[in-house]
Amino acid sequence: MSTTFNPFGLKPVYHPSGLDRAVPFVGTNTYNPGTTYTAPYSLSSGQSFFQYTPVALTASGQLTIAAQAAASTTVGRVYGSFDGVEYTNSDGRRSVAKYASKTTLDASTQIIFWIFQDPQLVYEIQCNGSVTTAAIGTQYNFDTTAGSLVTSGTAIGVGGAGFSTTALLATAVAAGAQGQVRVVGLGREVAYPAGSNNSWGDTYTIVQVQIANNMFAAASVSI
């Protein structure tokens, strides 16, 4: 049973086609808006991109962190899930990392992001609460609790490792409303405590989702 809340962001797990598009450098696309931007990203002070952070694009094409909730079918749309970044640091050394802070990126050049952004990808994410099979086909927004927001994450030691701790709200949006993701099944992620099975109705259920408010597909409201 998933009895411990230990969110891990918006983690890609498979593609409905059966092609292996949930694997880094196979399922990811590079994102670099061109040489016109000195900073091809938009972060607030203290923010970072962590592996599996839900991301979006600004009106000017800069990569940013996705909104907690879908404001409408055209506002707050999700681009995909962050998987890493390449950049040239202030010493002129080319670096590759699974996360990067605003401070690091501000001091870097030649930035290229790696993003999972195929609209059909299926992801896993942990809910901050219990959900049942009634969740299938319904839509949800990201969690609003400190520590499991879209901006939340943890850097691990040194070497560029950092992981999102984004979770999903356990309450679906209303029928006819727009959510950020749609539940399509039960997560197969190993549950917590370690070695236990994830099941519907667990205290902190892990679910499989697709992005419902996707920038590359027509938004579809909750049923």
Description:
The protein is globular. The longest helix has 5 residues, at 102-106. It has one helix at residues 102-106; strands at 11-14, 28-31, 48-49, 54-57, 63-65, 80-88, 94-97, 100-101, 109-116, 122-126, 139-140, 153-155, 162-164, 181-186, 206-211. It is built from one helix and 15 strands, in the order ββββββββαβββββββ. Helix content is 2%, strand content 29%. Strands 2, 4, 5, 6, 7 and 9 form a six-stranded antiparallel β-sheet that branches. A five-stranded antiparallel β-sheet has the order 1-10-15-14-11, with no helix packed on it. It has a two-stranded antiparallel ribbon with strand order 3-8. The protein has a domain at 28-116.
Can you describe this structure in just a few lines?
The protein is mainly β and 223 residues long.
SSE map:
Elements: E1 11-14, E2 28-31, E3 48-49, E4 54-57, E5 63-65, E6 80-88, E7 94-97, E8 100-101, H1 102-106, E9 109-116, E10 122-126, E11 139-140, E12 153-155, E13 162-164, E14 181-186, E15 206-211
Antiparallel strand pairs: 1-10, 2-9, 3-8, 4-5, 4-6, 6-7, 6-9, 10-15, 11-14, 12-13, 14-15
